Amino acid sequence: FKEKAKVIGEKINQFMWNEEDGLYYDVDDNGNQIKCKTIASFWPMLAGISNQHQAEKMLENLKDTKTFWRTIPFASLAADDRNYKADGSYWLGSVWASTNVMVIKGLDKFGVGENAKYFSEFATIATEKYLEGMYEVYKRTGTIWENYAPDAYTRGLWSRPDFVGWSGCGPIELLIENIIGLRPNGVEKSLTWILNRIDAHGIINLRFGNVNASVICEKRKNVNSPVVINVETDKVFTLKVVHPRLGSKSFKIESGTQKLVFE
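-> structure tokens emitted (263 positions)
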């Protein structure tokens, strides 16, 4: 399967990548690119098909206010397309949880190594902007919607209410992983915490595998202040703390309550 995936990936890069536009396009039966900019262009980042150069060009497209970076990101159809609808009209621009998670997790893949901060920082900014839009709509309607309009704080046309099925991925998965910075691994019984905040933050009763843990990072004066983390857990697990200045450090967490200091 890995070999087959490699072959398919090579074909995608050969026929679907457009260097000038910095995007992937669908192709017709004759192999000609159909130049319609959609959010589907970014799947190859998540799939591991894109290289660093391609990812950087796609990042610029995601930041473009004329295409995908709208009031609520990311529009499913680029705003400069003649068929784009400001109210969303389902897949003519609406913002969807499924594709937003795809984009954010694709950015996370490139959030390591050289120039990593450009991807990881933008992933955080995009998540905050997306969740802000969801929250503004929630305050007025009292519910979570199937999709959202890209150009205003309102539900998408058309969309169903009480649609936590995948729209819940934003205020759950993306909040935990990209705002709070916690990356759980249930199989390995490990929790990686990428610290990018100085306010008091964390989570109570996070379950990963058979571990139920609460982890709270105390408020700091600035990014150079010592990190103090309070942990309570019912099972043993490994906590890896990643700090932008101090690097990373792993702690073996025993069941019970404990205070960790990283400086």
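The chain has two domains: 2-178, 181-262.
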